[in-house]
């Protein structure tokens, strides 16, 4: 019996179990139960030789209780755990689920007591503790399958190991000065279940295959490290053969990808460091650079929990919202040439049909022709914003609480030929590939380093530099955009961290080539 | 019901018997662990509907991992891990599965053979392990209420709504682990529990931000200290409102504990691991034995420190978790190293180039830092063994009292909180950037001056240069937390010279 059977077991019995549990409680409330079985296989090679290989499987469970203790707005509690094959035993599974539900309900009660006391004690000073409602979710039934040719759950580990060694060997031999490289290949099959005491039953399946490559090159002139990822919601075939379907997220095979990255690191290690002047210059940024730009400066601040200051102690607030009356909705935040959205319905590393609150994911238009539109939200944050839930609450694992998350978040393509965007620049810089971001508290200012920087002189690419980053105030930068390419690309982002405890989530980001004005900062 | 640690120890001993019987296995390592994290998150926003305390939540996991060296030609290494099911049947299945994942690793240094431990490894169960949900909720709500008392007082005085935002969390983590190996006798085990609490208060009406934090190992400490953090953070925010926006330029800075910890965590400590030297990606490449910081400064990892929020007695490879001296009087003398990482680096043909000539005097690296840290920084069976720290302690020779530190600055800034501190040009470059987000003020004529508006300045600097340009250091170590870090930092305040600050434009009203 494989571990996916645990999902079948819960699908058959979990819904009734939840309803009976809620009915048996003295207070009114509701419960949600999420389960996820993951079967993962991976291999790692270093400097062309196998380092490790293995497979794991786990079954995560998470119970969320919302308790309506004489209030319209609920208090919540949660309990999660990760288990394994012991959960294939029906009795043990239901006892475990019962324990999680009881723990989450008990925590919701503790929380409700605290909130009631604070409201009694502080009256008007705690008035905002009333009215934090949760938008209802419709009752849904869905059963969707993952798309793959090579089943990740039965992938041949020797095959993964071989591919990791080939890719790492290719990187080692690709160019002079490659002193270290590590290649990790993984393929995973996830089956998720969402059950609510109101009756929803949503089953979704995802295949993820991903290659992470890290290269360090050292030449007489200097050194360069590069880390990058390719990934797709597919089986191993996408890493072994690459994808050339003509889609936005096409990528090379793992060997070609590792080789190219090593060549780039080697070339950069021989390039001089840029020492730019103080003033603003014309910058043309490529789709890979803009993937990180949209992630940090549009995507994150469009998350409603961040905008509503729920992340203020961790990852800050949003430059799109100061208050419910003073915010960017309907106002100009960028050049009319710029539009950006999140769309989980299209293919990409952040694709899904339903979020982890049982709400259908849909395209959310953040910026349209420079005017701010909509935040990504959860059922709770939608209620505060007076919006409809748009299916953006997701957790990285079933045992963790859903947070508001990006999906496939990108800048929409324009009409310009990227070559013409460069060609029209008399003097400026072309920045390709992203390295590392640093952003201000509300993401109203950023510094993002690029991998390669070329001088542009009289419309032509000149010398290659390294160690430079774009330093800009966000609105000023977006308002300065005067060209948007027609070359939209999406890139897999494997490790977006958020929350406490930290959740690392997969998604995709991208955009077309952009032309704007900004300061450059050297290394 | 048997205590978790006893159950893990018994399970490891039983697993050992199964692994030792297998004729294909030359050597083995067996590791099992259980950990849980419970979190209460604050979220109070006076102008937006909120819950005060978000859902109390938890995440628990247990499982085991085995690592095998197979008999035969060359070092054939195999691994497997199992989540949840701590049964001997699963051990047998994992053994079979591991054999199918064998890799031939030419540079595999063998499994570690740690010497016998001189004292029993497991300590009595800490009281924090038994902290109830009700007690955690009570501590969280009392933290919020502490801030609300202060807010009511301030609003009454000023007659204005503050626009209060209170965020942060109390996180309580527990970890238990047991391991055995063909390379040492018996079962070695360890357990620990700790809490961390951080609170950030924003007064939006005056653009003030203040923070407070605590870390510890006892439930009494949690219940006693944490509820006051809401009030403390808000008082700081109120005191630092309506700040000035200093002009960009080069400044002499007095860095508070959080900025020192943040820069150490994101830029310096990752460069002080055997792994980073092996990968040729350390900012201190080739500088082993040389001066890498100002001579006043020393840096060490102290897993058994009495004052430490983390207390570990055994590493995840079975070694006694001892002190690792990283930097003494400014010289780089040690690295955080697991047995595996240390041995690989030591066997590396480019070792001399990577470490530098100073390493010639060493016999090897002390494997004090081999931990399987999961995402919450707790020991997790399914995390790989990495080189990591626990309580990272920076100390200063002839440290000065705070008033003297301000005098040493004369004209400059006190920086109390930074964030998003990343090595912007890659780890090896040592460059970093971050923004100053609160708890900061001007220093004028050696005294505290006007508050600095949060989020108006960005630091662009080199960590290597910054720690080499220390003008003065404090005489006290302060605990400091870094979001998402598995380590807790104990650091002095530092006066540093010539740090470049660029301006962050004041955002226009949306």
Question: Could you give a quick summary of the protein structure above?
Answer:
Chain A is an alpha+beta fold. Chain A contains 10 helices and 22 strands.
Write a structural description:
- The complex is a heterodimer of chains A (523) and B (510).
- With 523 residues, chain A is of the alpha+beta class.
- Chain A folds into three domains: 5-35 and 57-143; 152-194 and 203-269, no CATH class; 281-522, no CATH class.
- In chain A, 24% of the residues lie in helices and 36% in strands.
- Chain A contains ten helices and 22 strands.
- In chain A, strands 1, 2, 3, 4, 5, 6 and 7 form a seven-stranded mixed β-sheet that branches. Chain A has a six-stranded mixed β-sheet with strand order 11-10-9-14-21-20. In chain A, strands 8-15-16-18-22 form a five-stranded mixed beta barrel.
- In chain A, strand 15 (427-439) and strand 16 (445-457) form a beta hairpin.
- In chain A, helix 1 crosses helix 2.
- The radius of gyration of chain A is 24 Å and the shape is globular.
- The relative contact order of chain A is 0.13.
- Chain B has two domains: 4-239, PmbA/TldD superfamily (PmbA/TldD fold); 249-503, no CATH class.
- In chain B, helix 1 (4-21) packs across helix 2 (88-99).
- The mean pLDDT of chain B is 94.
- Chain B has 510 residues and is α+β, with helices and mostly antiparallel strands.
- Chain B starts with a helix and ends in a 7-residue tail after the last strand.
- The radius of gyration of chain B is 25 Å and the shape is globular.
- In chain B, strand 6 (164-181) and strand 7 (184-203) form a beta hairpin.
- In chain B, the strands form four sheets. In chain B, strands 9, 16, 17, 18, 19, 20, 21, 22 and 25 form a nine-stranded mixed β-sheet that branches. In chain B, strands 1, 2, 3, 4, 5, 6, 7 and 8 form an eight-stranded antiparallel β-sheet that branches.
- Classes of the chains: A alpha+beta (523), B alpha+beta (510).
- At the A-B interface, strand 2, strand 3, helix 2, strand 5 and strand 6 of A face strand 1, strand 2, strand 3, strand 4 and helix 2 of B.
- Strand 3 (75-83) of chain A pairs parallel with strand 3 of chain B.
